[in-house]
User: Which sequence fits this backbone?
């Protein structure tokens, strides 16, 4: 079954209007695979008929389901490993050295999907020797898709999901079995709060020390990417770290970040006013935390 | 790189062998823990063993204990691939010296990712 | 007698779906009412649980379905497989379903190695057990029945 141009055009228009996501030519296979289950569920014979029904009905239930199906991103625990290694081995130690004991560390998982990414970060935080002193750590996890957020809040994962990328010793330490699933234990779960947020719309958040914005920029057009990165920079601490997906970069989109190599991965740090690199801003960030005037 | 696949089900051995060959491993097979130990004593030492739990003659947990008692076999990574899914069983296996654990059913990606976690075949 | 904690229909369904999705064919099972007929020449693969829980998990299907399952697991045409390879495959399916069921019943219990029988409805020949949970799924027109049998309290 293939998606005809008219159907594809409608669906990509809908998803762009609702979520600013771009489904260009070549993405027909994605529309097909994501809509097939919905088509079957609704008892429709083919995708064109299903989409036409969604298009013509008064209530937007089906249209909403289409947008949800196309904004659900694949995720897994410790995806790509290296950024998480960089987070635990370099970023956290640096932040604990930089920030006073009482100062919370704020982390944002900015397209958290079903929750594996923020819970991976929460597990690393729980295990980290330099965070054992009880310094507050807050992990904010957001996504545009309410359905995945609901699943993420439940903190329950299937056997198939925990088989992926999660070291067995961590599974044993941080999860308990509930029926056929594994659920994150409360000590780890409580570090994460989930909230809906549309990156393509203005957002107002406290300043973040670490941001994971992985494998989501690719879905937006250049203009939206630029505005997201600009707004991202405004909510990041000068000493902060931004992690993007493996093939993503701020190059050509925002020159307010400098790329730093950490092990075999890279991260992006806000350039200070006047283009100063972040090393020079160390004392400034400490002072800003203390509320001193600059 | 060399792997040994240990399971009393021929179908499961085949599935795991195909996955490992796809990851560029040479693969030995054994139908139970005892046979696996014998093969390891005879020939080249595998880099990783994928081992089922419930098998006749010598089960997977006994195999893990036996390998870990062996001074010269410290380099062999042990990954259990089993239907035993209770947390207590995972704890037992890890305490006995297993390095990783996959509960059946699993996808090929799960095996590949666990191998990367072990640093085998990098 | 207090009822033991046993898996729900949803649990059995999820377990069976996971096995099919991982090794056979994704999203290929549909669910239907219990009363579907299996042909006389059927295959029954069984694993037994003993310990804190005493019972059996059975997977029943037609011979044709069993050969298809074997063909998928061995990634080879059914004609090229032997009878023992077919029973090995259906036995491993029962093993995987049974193992996951074991995690849902009171423990600790041990799982036996699978046994596979041809022909007769094995439920009738196992004394002192009753079916406490059962689902029927359809795989491309082939009915597949997954049941949990438990020692009757009086047995």
Assistant:
């Amino acid at each position: 079954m293939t998606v005809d141009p008219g159907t594809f055009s409608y669906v990509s228009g809908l998803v762009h209007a609702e979520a600013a996501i771009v489904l260009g030519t070549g993405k027909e296979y994605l529309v097909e695979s994501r809509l097939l289950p919905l088509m079957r569920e609704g008892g429709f014979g083919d995708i064109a008929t299903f989409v036409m029904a969604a298009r013509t009905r008064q209530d937007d239930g089906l249209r909403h389901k289409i947008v949800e199906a196309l904004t659900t991103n694949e995720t897994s625990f410790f995806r790509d490993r290296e950024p998480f290694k960089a987070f635990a081995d370099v970023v956290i130690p640096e932040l604990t050295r930089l920030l006073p004991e009482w100062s919370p560390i704020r982390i944002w998982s900015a397209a958290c999907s079903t929750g594996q990414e923020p819970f991976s970060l929460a597990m690393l935080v729980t295990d980290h020797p330099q965070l054992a002193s009880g310094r507050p750590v807050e992990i904010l996890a957001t996504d545009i898709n309410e359905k995945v957020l609901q699943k993420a809040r439940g903190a329950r994962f299937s056997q198939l999901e925990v088989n992926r990328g999660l070291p067995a010793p961590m599974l044993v330490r941080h999860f308990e079995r509930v029926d056929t699933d594994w659920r994150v234990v409360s000590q780890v779960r409580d570090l994460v709060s989930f909230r809906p947020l549309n990156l393509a719309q203005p957002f107002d958040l406290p300043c973040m020390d670490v941001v994971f914005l992985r494998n989501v920029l690719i879905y937006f057009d250049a203009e939206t990417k630029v505005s997201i990165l600009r707004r991202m920079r405004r909510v990041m601490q000068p000493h902060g770290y931004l992690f993007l997906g493996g093939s993503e970069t701020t190059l050509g989109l925002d020159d307010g970040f400098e790329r730093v190599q950490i092990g075999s991965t890279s991260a992006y740090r806000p350039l200070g006013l006047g283009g100063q690199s972040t090393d020079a801003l160390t004392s400034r960030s400490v002072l800003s935390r203390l509320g001193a005037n600059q | 790189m060399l792997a040994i696949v240990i399971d009393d089900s021929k179908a499961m051995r085949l599935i795991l062998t195909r996955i490992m060959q796809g990851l560029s491993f040479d693969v030995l097979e054994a139908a139970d823990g005892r046979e696996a130990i014998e093969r390891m004593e005879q020939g080249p030492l595998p880099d990783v063993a994928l081992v089922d739990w419930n098998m006749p003659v010598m089960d997977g947990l006994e195999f893990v204990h036996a390998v870990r008692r062996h001074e010269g076999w410290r380099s062999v990574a042990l990954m259990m691939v089993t239907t035993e899914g209770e947390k207590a069983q995972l704890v037992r296996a890890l305490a006995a010296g297993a390095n990783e654990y996959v509960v059946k059913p699993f996808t090929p990606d799960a095996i590949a990712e666990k191998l990367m976690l072990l640093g085998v075949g990098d | 007698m207090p009822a033991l904690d046993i898996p729900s229909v949803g649990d059995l369904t999820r377990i069976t779906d996971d096995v099919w999705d991982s090794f056979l064919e994704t999203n290929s099972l549909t669910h239907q009412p219990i009363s579907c007929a299996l042909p006389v020449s059927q295959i029954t693969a069984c694993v037994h649980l003993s310990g804190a829980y005493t019972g059996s998990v059975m997977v029943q299907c037609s011979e044709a379905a069993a050969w298809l399952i074997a063909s998928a697991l061995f990634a080879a045409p059914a004609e090229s497989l032997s009878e023992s390879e077919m029973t090995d495959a259906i036995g491993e399916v029962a093993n995987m379903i049974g193992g996951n069921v074991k995690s849902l019943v009171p423990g600790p219990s041990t799982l036996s190695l699978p046994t596979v029988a041809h022909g007769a409805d094995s439920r009738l020949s196992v004394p002192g057990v009753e079916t406490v949970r059962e689902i029927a799924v359809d795989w491309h027109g082939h009915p597949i029945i997954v049941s949990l049998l438990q020692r009757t309290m009086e047995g």
Notes: Strands of chain A lie at 105-109, 137-143, 156-158, 175-178, 181-184, 192-196, 208-213, 236-244, 257-262, 265-270.
